[in-house]
Design goal:
Blueprint: E1 3-5, E2 18-23, E3 27-34, E4 37-45, H1 48-52, E5 56-60, E6 68-72, H2 74-99, E7 104-108, H3 111-120, H4 123-127, E8 129-133, H5 142-162
Parallel strand pairs: 2-7, 7-8
Antiparallel strand pairs: 1-4, 2-3, 3-4, 5-6
Amino acid sequence: MRNMQISNKLPQFERFPALFITSGEYEAHFYIAFQGKLELKKILKMPPREEAKEKQGFTGHKAGMQDLSSLSHKGKYAEDLKMKFARNVHAIVHDILADSNMEEIYVFAPKFVMVRILAGLDKNEQKKVRMQFYNEYTKNNPIELIKIFQKEIDKIQKEIIQSPVQRPLIT
């Protein structure tokens, strides 16, 4: 797949690889950041319009009778598709983790999508999720994910420096 160079000003992920997942409701991109490179591993797309064709039907009576109708299981179908999408995301994450010694996962997705994705992961995989970013970034340049990650790290470090842990006084 596609390799991109990570700027030296950003984290290089030198010690071990990290999995970056960016997801929308029906599209997810999977990247591995390692040793200064960001590699696109997989793209999952399940557009509802294309998927919906198999779920639509038409019932009615022969011409001349006025009882014609069409069926659409859109509501139920949309929920089924969302769950199928979450299962596919899990399968891809599982495969990627099986192929590498990945210890960190960073997920970028709207909150309602994040809930489905995290619920589909095994407990061991859930423990590897280090940060969650609640927005859809599937259309953004993947290097933006690293920049967003870096901003959050900087923010956390600043908070730690500004409010050091209070130690109890021993008398």
